[in-house]
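seq:
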Amino acid sequence: MNSKTAKIIKKFSDLKGINSKQLKREWLSLNESEKDKKRQEFLAALVKK
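struct:
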C-alpha cells in the first residue's frame, strides 16, 4: 500500500465512521483487480461527499 492509498482509506474511514485499521487489513487481503474496484468505490464516495 502506498501513501496515496493510505490517505484515501483514511479519508473514507473518517467519512463513513469505520475503523481505518480494519479497512487497511481488508485492503491487504485483496488481489490487484479487487483493489482497483475498491479504490474506485472509495474515490466515488469521497467525490460525492
